[in-house]
Amino acid sequence: MQSTTRRLGTALTGAALALGALAVTPSVHAATAHDTVPLEQSIGWMTGRLTDGALSTQYGADYSTTGYLAEALQSVGGHSTELAPILHALETHVDEQIHGFVGGTDVYAGSAAKLAAIVQTAGDDPTNVDGTDLIQVLEGQVGTTGRTFDTSPYGDFANTIGQAYAVRALTTATSTKAAAATDFLLDQQCPAGWFRLGFSASSATDQSCAADATSKPDPDATSFVLLELAPLADGNAKIARSIGRAESWLAGRQRADGSFGGGTSTEGSNANSTGLAGWALGQLGHTSVAEAAATWLRTMQAHELSSCPTALSGQTGALAYDAAALAAGRTSGVSDSYQWQLAAAQALPALKWLPVATGHAALTGPRGFQPGGARATYRVAGAAPAETLCLAVGSAKHAFTAGTDGAAALGVSLPAATTTLPFSLTTAGGVAATGTTKVLGAARPSITLSRTRLARGATLTVRISGLAAGEDVTLKLGKRVVRTGLAGGSGAFTARVKLTRGLVKPGKVKVTVVGQFANRTNAKTIRVVR
């Protein structure tokens, strides 16, 4: 749900989007056992970054992402101690969320809905939050058609996501505006089942998704709507039908590796979209979909091994937005705290469905001699899905992550000079595999000739040394290959060649030896006489 700069937060201050509390009761499944450690690691990483109950970026307190974290903890359950200071921070900084700053006069409908839903889920009174009646504020931002709107000189940023949270908050508060808001939200669903993100122009006679030719499917918006509507479906056939169509469409968007992409500006696989979809579909009983999503998310999570430290060491539980962000993080650390924190806040509940891993990693190194300076590929199979691994090749160490199938391939640049490099693979359980890679650099093997002047029909003996034991050897007279073989244990090779009429002509003839690779060669000249 995010690009490098979060698309839905553009031009919004601390009030950003308005997303509400998520407290859908998980479905009960008796199938796969789930690993809760990665979930707790992400919760620990996020709560460890709080200051006075709020997350911060380089621009100051970030109450929007703090709200997402509150929603995540409310959904996961069992973290009341960690949740208490977060709720206190949100409930004592109302202006910053719904007006943009203390004393502001702008009103952001989505932010009011988000905070109201969080307060409701916590069991507190949304009509008196630090002196503010959030329900009254929200009702004031609902038009006669049920459409929410913002009041700001910077524009109206209300959208389907904020509308979904408004429906949740208003319905829970039994507001007279709830029915109209719900009808308007359901109109944002297109016939195929997906929900769009943006509304039609306010001047349009028909404000539905189906009536707007510019409507585009948005998996993130669809996920948010599912999360907010699911608790309201009992006894409401219209909502239940809408959920059924939306969940069917969303489940069909999952990619082969378990990931999801977002809308038009975030099409690539990313943690936010995958986490939201896995969370929503998992709550609705799509266990296998949620498990695949959680497994992909694990590939984006920092859990570095001490044997292979990176800039993410000490950041266990952090969730990268995508593979590029994870790679950058291993080099530069958590440089964009907003992106990393938002990814974790929106994705961590989906980790509830992470299957328990039972894999045992095996490593295959490059076979045979490798040319100096080339890139060699080391392949892992049988690792735990999304397991962090450490490959040591010589003195160089490389941290990487197994795929969702427990496999991985890592290219490593080899030194230019001839050497034998030990390699090893380390997992969380210790060293899993070892081996050696034999590297051959450029060389000029020594050539000793029995004679340099021979009559045609004589036998030439060529003795070669300076090769590696077992190295391929090719001997040429002129352009013709006359012998091939392997160097012996001392790196030597001897060949005897009869200089027949069909093989050579009188005159100078080049004797060339080529080792395993083209840059391991040398040549001498003989003279053939009649």
Detailed description of the structure:
With 530 residues, the protein is of the alpha+beta class. It has three domains: 7-353, Alpha/alpha barrel (Glycosyltransferase); 362-440, Immunoglobulin-like (Sandwich), CATH 2.60.40.1930; 446-529, Immunoglobulin-like (Sandwich), CATH 2.60.40. Helices cover 29% and strands 20% of the residues. It is built from 14 helices and 18 strands. The protein has a five-stranded mixed β-sheet with strand order 4-10-9-6-7, with no helix packed on it. A hairpin with a 6-residue loop joins strand 17 and strand 18 (521-529). The longest helix is centred in the middle third of the chain and has 15 residues, at 237-251. The radius of gyration is 33 Å and the shape is elongated. The model is unreliable at 1-30 (pLDDT under 50).
Strand order of the largest sheet: 4-10-9-6-7
DSSP strand tally: 18
Mean pLDDT: 92
In total, how many domains does the architecture comprise?
3
- Strand percentage: 15-25%
Sheet with most strands: 5 strands, mixed
Task: Give the helix proportion (percent range).
Answer: 25-40%
Structural class: alpha+beta
CATH topology of the largest domain: Glycosyltransferase
First-to-last CA distance: 83 Å
- Radius of gyration equals 33 Å
Report the CATH architecture of the largest domain.
Alpha/alpha barrel
